[in-house]
Amino acid sequence: MTALAGFFFMLFASALSAEILPPKPKGYFNDYANVVDRATALQLNEQLAQFERDTSNQIIVAIYPTMESESSVEDYAQRVAQTWGVGQKDRSQGNGVVMLVFIAERKISIQVGYGLEGSLPDATAFAILARHMNPHFREGDYAGGLPEGINLICKAIRGEYKGDGKTDLESKKNGSTRGLPIGLIIFLVIVAFIIFSNRRNRGRRGYGYSGMGGPFIGGFG
C-alpha cells in the first residue's frame, strides 16, 4: 500500500514538474506566437489600456505557441488566470478577464472574474468564440479573429452585446428539453443550482469558471 501511494505521488510530482505557469504579462495584448503584425498588436494593447481607463476593468490577452503542461487546457487556463489575478487590486470581486490562445492545441479559453460574470456569462462567451473568432482562426486569420473577439468582450462588459443567449450544448439541441423525462429535468435543475451556489462561494476568492464544470474552451480545429 505504501509503495502504491509512493508511485502515485511520483506521478503527481512528475506532472507538476512538467508544467510551466507563465508569468503575468506586462502588457494587455501579448502575442508570444507572432500570429499578428506589430501594428495590430500595438493597437489592441492600447485599446485594452484605454478600456481599463474608461471602465476600471482589465482584459489580458496572451497567445502562446503551445501549452506548457500535461494537464487539460481547462485546468491549465484556470490556474493561469488565478495566478495572474487580473483586475484592479482594490476591487474585491475580480473585475478582470483573461483570454488565452494556444496555437498548437488549437484552443481558446476565456476566464472571467467573479465581478464580471453577470455581463460576460457562458452563453455570451460561447457566441464570441464560436461565432466570431473561430471562423477566422480556422482560416489562419488571427489578425481578424482577435480584434473581433476583443471588441465583443469589451461590448459585453459595457452591456452592448449579449450574444444569442445560448451555450454550445443549448445550440446543438436548439435550446429544447422536449422529449426529456421529467425526472431527468428535475435532476438537472438541482445539479445546476448546486453548481451555481458553489460558484458564488468560490468566485469571491478570484476567478470563477466561465462554464459549468470548467472554464469555457473553444476549439478552432
Topology:
Blueprint: H1 2-17, E1 29-31, H2 38-55, E2 58-64, H3 73-84, E3 96-102, E4 107-112, H4 122-138, H5 142-158, H6 168-172, H7 182-203, E5 216-219
Helix pairs in contact: 2-5, 4-5
What descriptive keywords fit this protein?
221 residues, alpha/beta, five-stranded mixed beta sheet, 7 helices, 48% helix, globular
Question: Could you provide a short overview of the structure?
Answer:
48% of the residues lie in helices and 12% in strands. It has 221 residues and is an alpha/beta fold. It has a five-stranded mixed sheet, sandwiched between helices.
User: Approximately how much helix is present in the residues?
Assistant: 40-55%
Q: What distance separates the N and C termini?
A: 43 Å
- Structural class given helices, strands, pairing? alpha/beta
Number of helices: 7
Order of helical and strand elements: HEHEHEEHHHHE
**Rg, Å, rounded:** 19 Å
Report the principal-axis shape: globular
- Strand arrangement, major sheet: 1-2-3-4-5
Q: Which residue ranges are poorly predicted, with pLDDT under 50 across at least 5 consecutive positions?
A: 199-207, 209-214
Q: Could you tell me the strand content as a percent range?
A: 5-15%
What average pLDDT do the residues reach?
Answer: 79
Number of strands: 5
The description of the largest β-sheet is: 5 strands, mixed
